[in-house]
Write a structure and sequence with these properties.
Blueprint (H helix, E strand, L loop, with lengths): L2 H20 L7 E5 L10 E5 H7 L5 E4 L9 E6 L4 E5 L7
Antiparallel strand pairs: 1-2, 3-5, 4-5
């Protein structure tokens, strides 16, 4: 997992969630979120509620990926759901 790319996709997902909340969508309503694996060319989407999204991102070290998009060299799968997995980054991003 590359931190620059997966952090970028996480920020995109946060904005998707914010737009939904601003538009008064139900927090439990399913939305499409981007896979945060950071692989070149990955644009996979998966459905989940914004409530589940926020719960999965309770830590800044967790990311949401499509099933099988984890990188065992850099991630540890902590939860598996039908449409997405929650992974914890094992290595820290470089300091600025």
């Amino acid at each position: 997992m590359t931190f620059d790319r997966n952090t970028l996709f996480r920020e995109v997902n946060e904005r998707i969630g914010d737009v939904g909340c601003d538009a008064l969508f139900d927090i439990g309503e399913l939305r499409e979120f981007l896979c945060e694996c950071g692989r070149d060319g990955c644009r996979e989407l998966f459905p989940m509620s914004y409530a589940a999204y926020r719960e999965a991102h309770r830590s800044r070290d967790t990311f949401l990926v499509a099933p099988g998009h984890d990188d065992p060299a850099h991630d540890r799968v902590t939860e598996q759901f039908e449409s997405y997995w929650v992974v914890e980054a094992l290595s820290k991003p470089p300091s600025p």
